């Protein structure tokens, strides 16, 4: 189940930030509600979980209905948490880089 949820988070990040979906985001982003979904890791994570759950059901993965029904919800929360954590890490890296640059600019 962990690998399935990791795939959901990966799909979420690919849809939200990946270059491969850049044109799709630009095209569908003109529709107000779709733009809001694509900007929301919780929302995109849910629909990524639905897509992967449907795929696993069709592929006959042998997961019970309850497990398949919970994938979208688990995907949503994990995608949101991962997005928040990665944004925090990005802020720390940018701040560290800025301090490094400032320190070496004075030399």
Mean pLDDT across all amino acids = 91
Please, how many helices? 5
Low-confidence stretches: none
- In total, the number of strands is 0
Overall geometric form: elongated
Q: Tell me the distance between the termini.
A: 52 Å
Please state the CA-atom Rg, rounded to the nearest Å. 18 Å
In percent terms, what proportion of residues is strand? under 5%
Query: N-to-C SSE series?
Result: HHHHH
Largest sheet properties = none
Tell me the helix content.
over 70%
Number of domains: 1
The helix/strand class is mainly alpha
Structure write-up:
- The chain is an all-alpha fold and 107 residues long.
- The chain has one domain (2-81).
- It has helices spanning 2-17, 22-28, 32-38, 41-59, 65-105.
- The longest helix has 41 residues, at 65-105.
- The protein is elongated.
- It starts with a helix and ends with a helix.
Descriptors for this entry?
single chain, 107 residues, mainly alpha, 5 helices, elongated
Write the layout of secondary structure elements.
Elements: H1 2-17, H2 22-28, H3 32-38, H4 41-59, H5 65-105
Helix pairs in contact: 1-4, 1-5, 4-5
Summarize the structure.
With 107 residues, this protein is an all-alpha fold. The protein contains 5 helices and no strands.
């Amino acid at each position: 189940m962990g690998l399935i949820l990791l795939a959901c988070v990966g799909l979420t990040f690919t849809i939200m930030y990946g270059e491969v979906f850049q044109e799709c985001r630009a095209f569908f982003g003109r529709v107000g509600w779709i733009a809001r979904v694509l900007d929301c890791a919780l929302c995109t994570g849910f629909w990524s979980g639905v897509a992967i759950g449907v795929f696993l059901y069709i592929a006959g993965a042998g997961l019970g209905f309850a497990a398949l029904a919970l994938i979208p919800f688990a995907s949503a929360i994990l995608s949101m948490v991962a997005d928040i954590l990665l944004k925090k890490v990005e802020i720390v890296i940018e701040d560290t880089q800025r301090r490094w640059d400032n320190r070496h600019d004075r030399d």
